[in-house]
Specification:
The chain is of the alpha/beta class and 361 residues long. Helices cover 46% and strands 16% of the residues. Strands 1, 2, 3, 4, 5, 6, 7, 8 and 9 form a 9-stranded mixed sheet that branches.
């Protein structure tokens, strides 16, 4: 008689930190239960929710691989990520938010990449990422709105060492992946997964960058994760608070600079690599300069001018290149109404194309 694979030692620990989100939570749990591989465990880390999550989770606890843990005190989002991460023991850590969904072959495809590396005589990767779709609450594609004017960066499937991963993550455009599967061994070597200090919404970006200093990064360009971009998500609120606050640093820029420090402590970082990082920081200020003029909570032309200047300070070559000067001119001089109109037209066109039959999904 064959053993039940659900009773084998799990390879993946799916940690699901949650605060309320009772409407979204069942879908996230079911996306894990629906995986084509069964060698996982999952812990739901309830961040002292006000909603009745035990009644939501209860029907799923008959599966011995699923555990619910309610914390008695509420903390910020990334501290809750870290403490929930610490509740499992499997060697590969999978972060999943309540409003995101794993596609059925997510864990199977990740395991194939890990096994292939080992079979070829290489060390296990430090992290495996997959491409992700961005969806709204109605599960419609919102790639255009999510990625903004620059769109997503192109990243090919493959395995990247530290310098090549910095190159990938510092390219123009937003990262096309989400979530992530991390080596527990490397997380323990680093001492902490998600930074809990001043990174605001970009602690995940900083981790994606930093972990490459400890091990290679494998990327699967097939979308195996659905990420929700609804206006109630924590990312939207934190982005607005950063604009409103007048903080001299963008969240993305802080992540890049902190990760650069981590790489420099582990290896020699060549000057071209440093220039790439500072160029990425400059572009984050250019994006926020435009956001000051177009989005709620913006600080108008004054905020735009300040961020254009910060972009110049971080990377004059990037900020003073023709496209950088054009961006600065639009952010500072163009009427706000014109910018908002152009943004709406651009997003409407991209959204229509993303939701047309036959578009990539």
């Amino acid at each position: 008689m064959e053993s039940d694979p659900r009773h084998e030692a799990p390879l993946f620990y799916v940690f699901l930190p949650v605060l309320n989100d009772s409407e979204w939570l069942p879908g996230a749990i079911e996306s894990v239960i629906g995986q084509t591989t069964h060698n996982w465990q999952m812990v739901i880390g309830d961040n002292a929710s006000d909603e009745d999550l035990p009644s939501v989770v209860g029907p799923y606890l008959g599966d011995s691989r699923i555990t619910y843990h309610r914390w008695s005190t509420r903390v910020d989002i990334f501290p809750n990520f870290n403490r929930t991460l610490g509740l499992g023991r499997a060697p590969w850590l999978v972060v999943l938010c309540a409003d995101d969904r794993l596609r059925p072959t997510y864990l199977e495809r990740v395991q194939e990449v890990i096994d292939a590396r080992v079979a070829a005589g290489h060390a296990e990767p430090g992290m495996v990422l997959t491409a992700a779709r961005r969806l709204d609450a109605e599960r419609q594609a919102i790639e255009a709105e999510y990625y903004g004017w620059a769109g997503p960066a192109f990243v090919a499937s493959g395995v990247y060492d530290a310098p090549s991963w910095l190159d990938v993550t510092c390219r123009p455009g937003s990262p096309p992946w989400g979530g992530g599967v991390f080596s527990r061994r490397i997380v323990e070597t680093m001492g902490v997964a998600f930074r809990e200090d001043d990174l605001q919404m970009s602690a995940d970006r900083e981790l994606w960058l930093r972990i490459a200093a400890y091990g290679d990064v494998a990327y699967i360009a097939t979308p195996l994760l659905d990420v929700s971009g609804w206006t109630g998500s924590h990312t939207h609120g934190r982005t607005m608070r950063n604009r409103v606050s007048g903080n001299a640093n963008t969240p993305e820029g802080s992540a890049y600079l902190r990760a650069l420090t981590a790489h420099a402590q582990r290896r020699h970082v060549a000057e071209p690599e440093r220039a790439m990082v500072f160029a990425a920081v400059a572009r984050s200020h250019q994006r926020r300069a435009m956001a000051h003029r177009m989005l709620p909570g913006g600080r108008g032309r004054r905020g735009a001018v300040a961020d254009v200047w910060r972009a110049i300070r971080h990377s004059p070559r990037t900020a003073l290149a023709p496209i950088g000067l054009a961006y600065a001119g639009l952010a500072v001089l163009a009427p706000g109404g014109v910018l908002r109109f152009a943004r709406r037209r651009l997003l409407a066109t991209r959204s229509r194309r993303a939701n047309e039959p036959g578009s990539p999904s």
